[in-house]
Amino acid sequence: MLITKRINNNVAMAQDSDGNELVVFGKGLGFRKPPYELEETSQIHRVFRNVNDDLLKSINSISGEVIGVAMDIVRLAEVELDCRLNPNLYLTLADHLQFAAERFADGIVMENPLAADIPLVYPDEFELGKTGLAFMRNVTGLELPESEACSIALHILNAEGRGAKRANSARMVQKTLKIVDDVTAIVNAKMFPCGGGLDKTSHAYVRFVAHLKFLVKRLEGVDEHQEAKLPLLMDVAKGYPRAMSCSKAISRYFRREHGWKLTDEERFYLLMYLIKLEN
């Protein structure tokens, strides 16, 4: 591959063997004066083949430092999550980080409305978001607010997997977060009618949210699941009437709002997690 023009330290124009114009992302591609032949292609992390003025304008608006941070975040996320992320994440995440840095420099801090839910429902991606903020601090010196960790997490979530049934599409993320909020409201109303409510910092609640996330994934048909009959359900329910009432209310919610009918096994495990919340 022939590197023909430096855009910044981590992005360059190039030509493939057929003479097609490319934009390539890779750490240090712009350090060497072009033109030069790049023989070690493992240095390249992303190739854009449909080069146009809009793509070049977008790339030119992002600093090389921020593009480097975005590449580090994407590579770490692919290792930590053990998955291949959408290759466009390099550009979309870098563009977001650049805009966030410019807002911060102007004294503008935007709160993420999902900031309370993302750490609970998607803790792995949120931790990657926090690491991304550390990368930004180390490279640019900017101390971006923690709400930006949620934004980075959302970018990663939207890039996980491919195809119409991927669990972490933008639609599924939004749907899962809304369901967690709705079900939490049901639990508070049914199990804590006198006030107080759920302790969202408790281990029981964190496990309950994790269970909800995978339940939603299964009900959406992302995971195949074989139903198992559990005759214990009614026996257990007798000792925990409040949790059972809450379980029924959640089951009605799933059926009314999403058209999902819980199996006996799903109702049983939902009841088990509700009992832990009550104790």
Question: What's this model, at a glance?
Answer:
This protein has 279 residues and is of the alpha+beta class. The protein is built from eleven helices and five strands. The N and C termini lie far apart (63 Å).
Characterization of the model:
This protein has 279 residues and is an alpha+beta fold. The chain folds into three domains: 2-52, Transcription Regulation, Sacy, Chain A (Roll), CATH 2.30.24; 64-159, PTS-regulatory domain, PRD, CATH 1.10.1790.10; 171-278, PTS-regulatory domain, PRD. Helix content is 56%, strand content 8%. The protein has eleven helices and five strands, in the order βββββααααααααααα. The protein has helices spanning 53-60, 64-81, 89-105, 118-121, 123-140, 147-159, 170-191, 203-219, 232-238, 241-258, 264-278; strands spanning 2-8, 11-15, 21-25, 36-37, 46-48. The protein has a five-stranded antiparallel β-sheet. Helix 2 (64-81) runs antiparallel to helix 5 (123-140), helix 3 (89-105) packs antiparallel against helix 6 and helix 5 crosses helix 6. The longest helix has 22 residues, at 170-191. The protein starts with a strand and ends with a helix. Residues 163-167 have low confidence and may be disordered.
